[in-house]
DNA sequence: CACAAGAACTAGACTGTCCAGTACTGAATG
DNA sequence: CATTCAGTACTGGACAGTCTAGTTCTTGTG
């Protein structure tokens, strides 16, 4: 009847994953029942269990699927123009985009979800941290190394510098978001954090 | 029979609170049953419900009770000697103590517990953040303001500077601890973070 | 192209378990 | 002797995971 981009099975699989993502994000692991997910995916519970052995496996797969979206962030961070005159400008723009990406409600919610269940899923938290966070940090560190080679920055330990960069930018908004429910930061706040963070970073590393 | 420092009721109250603290920290909110707490406190369930209306109230009270221990941290941060020659040394010592205090397993565990349940207890997360975190930050900001008045630092926005200080120090270990189960950082790591963080901070703000 | 076999799917009932909160009894405590 | 407590049984609801019976899609083979 309809256009069939994928097999029925693949469509169901995706529907379940989408529903699980939405439900787990909104109500947490314990707060989401398999019936909820089945209903949201418009699928029978049996089908859910056909595609995913149990709730834990569904959760783990759903979380790890999100690491694919990190690529965009890696690309964002990968090349900073080596232009001495516009270094602050370029870094501030990068910082703004970085902040915008990380403070998206979805991203923050996912972060909280993983932290909340890091006890029950220790290796999951570790994997996500590695494949999500550390990949971006490593890319950023490489970019900083290049800038250091070009004598635009003075850096001993590029990875540490990358951590400092993200710490200066993200500490405030991420912390707030972890403890409060929704997002408390306006665009102006974010701009302030970006400007001030980059200024401090350049004070320390130029 | 025994020495009675407090009424029996007060003793029971404390026993329940201690047991709740231990249990919730170890197994999370959902993972801890009221029977667990009663058993751990060596008290009947009836008594638990005599002292605390329900599980939510017990949890909330237990969390807020921990904010009392913040006083020690506030005192720690309150007075930094205004000695220009030893500024870096003094700040590094402060940073080391700050890091040691915040990366204590109990503190990190509590932090994760609150984050994990910030959805279910929104006002609790907010209160804890205010009375725990922001109090320390405000004290630190005041101390920085004094140092700025003494011309030891160059600071526009003391609160932002305090956030930057803690971000530089805590971003790495706190992040790691949130996603991994236990503590991954050795004392050497912490020392490195303290030294490097203070160096970057002074680069930015001196 | 036709069609049969089998795979995947739906709907919902069902089991076993866990747990918050209540009720009751008899013993200890003050 | 009046409270407070331990011990324990009980209620009601939620939920992971299984099972069954009947339906729809997919695919290989003639």
From TrEMBL, chains A, B:
Supply the Pfam families for this chain: TetR_C_7, TetR_N
- Could you confirm whether the keyword Transcription regulation appears in this record? yes
Instruction: Please provide the record's keywords in A-Z order.
Output: DNA-binding, Transcription, Transcription regulation
Tell me which InterPro entries the record gives. Homeodomain-like_sf, HTH-type_TetR-like_transc_reg, HTH_TetR, Tet_transcr_reg_TetR-rel_C_sf, TetR_C_Proteobacteria
Domain HTH tetR-type, first and last residues per copy: 10-70
Q: Which residues bind DNA?
A: 33-52
One of its GO biological process terms is:
negative regulation of DNA-templated transcription
Instruction: State the Gene Ontology terms under molecular function.
Output: DNA-binding transcription factor activity; transcription cis-regulatory region binding
Q: Where is the signal peptide?
A: none
What's the protein name?
Answer: TetR/AcrR family transcriptional repressor of mexJK operon
The organism encoding this protein is Streptomyces echinatus
């Amino acid at each position: 009847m309809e256009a069939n981009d994928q097999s029925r099975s693949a469509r169901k699989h995706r529907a379940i994953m989408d529903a699980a993502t939405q439900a787990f994000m909104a109500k947490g692991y314990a707060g989401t029942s398999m019936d909820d997910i089945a209903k949201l995916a418009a699928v029978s519970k049996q089908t859910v269990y056909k595609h995913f052995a149990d709730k834990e496996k569904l959760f783990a797969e759903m979380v790890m699927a999100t690491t694919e979206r990190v690529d965009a962030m890696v690309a964002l961070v990968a090349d900073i123009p080596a232009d001495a005159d516009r270094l602050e400008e370029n870094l501030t723009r990068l910082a703004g985009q970085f902040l915008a990406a990380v403070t998206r409600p979805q991203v923050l919610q996912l972060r909280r979800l993983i932290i909340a269940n890091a006890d029950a899923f220790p290796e999951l938290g570790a994997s996500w941290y590695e494949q999500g966070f550390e990949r971006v940090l490593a890319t950023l560190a490489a970019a900083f190394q290049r800038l250091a080679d070009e004598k635009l920055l003075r850096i001993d330990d590029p990875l540490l510098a990358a951590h400092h960069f993200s710490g200066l930018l993200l500490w405030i908004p991420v912390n707030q978001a972890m403890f409060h429910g929704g997002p408390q930061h306006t665009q102006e706040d974010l701009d302030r954090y970006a400007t001030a963070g980059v200024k401090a970073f350049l004070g320390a590393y130029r």
